[in-house]
């Protein structure tokens, strides 16, 4: 039996969550075109058997993929917590996947790259979005990352088009240490249904509202229970200012009604049952800088 933690790190908006969802085979992480979409560290668990992938795999295995927030220089306490998640992923990885792309400035956060250089685990550099460059541009990126991380294998991909992703799994299985499973063999993730419901609502806010609104929002689930054939869910959308509350609700509550409809449809698909969803908006001033509120929202606040 092989088992281990494969932690996925990298800068914002390089396609970490898209890649993670493809590798897990399920949609666990929010995917939008906006940076800083992922706020938590999310485990996606893949269980497999000997003989998978046309007989190339000779042992049963469990891979725990860990999607992490994009690396950034924090401006408030929430972002410090997000950076802590990414940094901690370096210390408990059996295998590290560093995701970059053909568009970003690769030396944007040199301090984090130095930490990646200093860890002693197998590393894979995924150069994503190769559909956005030519052969010469790709060769330049490959040469750059060979220089930065000479002990890493470099794999060019296009996660958006699911190109060159399948082979990553078989390579990871080869690198996994021998170990017993860390989770039940039928487990998919370490997160609860409540967590994913809150993430679906937050995703719709990211997609529907513009400017600073999505980055000032957190969602808490206040009620979640089944009654007959329907699940009743009550959620509060927390914002930092009164003006943001007005924008979320919209004129004659048109905006929040549309948000609720969009979120309910996806929640029903996720839960595979009917849902009655109630949304409320609350001004929770400076919640992004308050440890007590961050803990309430499920963040692992470290001193």
Descriptive report:
The protein is α/β, with parallel strands linked by helices and 303 residues long. 36% of the residues lie in helices and 23% in strands. It has helices at 16-24, 52-55, 77-91, 110-118, 135-148, 166-175, 193-208, 242-249, 254-271, 291-296, and strands at residues 2-10, 42-48, 61-67, 95-101, 123-128, 153-156, 218-227, 230-239, 274-283. The strands form two sheets. A six-stranded mixed beta sheet has the order 2-3-1-4-5-6, sandwiched between helices. Strands 7-8-9 form a three-stranded mixed beta sheet. A hairpin with a 2-residue loop joins strand 7 and strand 8. Helix 7 crosses helix 9. The protein is globular and about 55 Å long. The protein starts with a strand and ends in a 7-residue tail after the last helix. The model has no long low-confidence stretch (mean pLDDT 91).
Which properties best describe this structure?
6-stranded mixed β-sheet; single chain; 303 residues; 36% helix; 10 helices
């Amino acid at each position: 039996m092989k088992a281990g933690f494969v932690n996925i790190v990298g800068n914002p908006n390089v396609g970490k969550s898209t890649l993670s969802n493809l590798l897990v085979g399920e949609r666990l992480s929010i995917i939008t075109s906006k940076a800083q979409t992922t706020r938590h560290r999310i485990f996606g668990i893949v269980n497999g058997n000997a003989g998978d992938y046309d007989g190339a795999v000779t042992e049963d295995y469990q891979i725990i993929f860990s999607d992490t927030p994009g690396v950034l220089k924090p401006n408030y306490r929430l972002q410090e917590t997000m950076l802590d998640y990414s940094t901690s992923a370096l210390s408990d990885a059996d295998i590290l996947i560093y995701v970059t792309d053909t568009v970003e400035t690769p030396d944007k956060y040199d301090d984090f790259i130095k930490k990646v250089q200093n860890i002693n685990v197998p590393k894979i550099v995924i150069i994503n979005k190769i559909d956005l460059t030519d052969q010469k541009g790709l060769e330049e990126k490959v040469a750059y990352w060979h220089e930065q991380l000479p002990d890493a294998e470099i794999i060019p991909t296009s996660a958006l088009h699911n190109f060159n992703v399948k082979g990553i799994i078989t390579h990871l299985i080869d690198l996994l240490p021998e170990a017993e499973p860390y989770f039940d063999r039928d487990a998919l993730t370490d997160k609860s249904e409540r967590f994913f419901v809150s993430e679906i609502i937050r995703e719709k806010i990211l997609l529907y509202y513009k400017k600073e609104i999505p980055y000032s929002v957190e969602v808490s689930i206040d009620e979640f229970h089944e009654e007959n054939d329907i699940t009743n869910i009550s959620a509060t959308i927390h914002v930092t200012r009164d003006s943001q509350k007005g924008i979320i609700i919209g004129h004659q509550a048109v905006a929040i009604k549309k948000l609720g409809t969009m979120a309910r449809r996806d929640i029903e698909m996720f839960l595979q049952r009917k849902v009655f969803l109630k949304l409320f908006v609350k001004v929770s001033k400076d919640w992004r800088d308050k440890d007590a509120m961050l803990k309430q929202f499920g963040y692992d606040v470290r001193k």
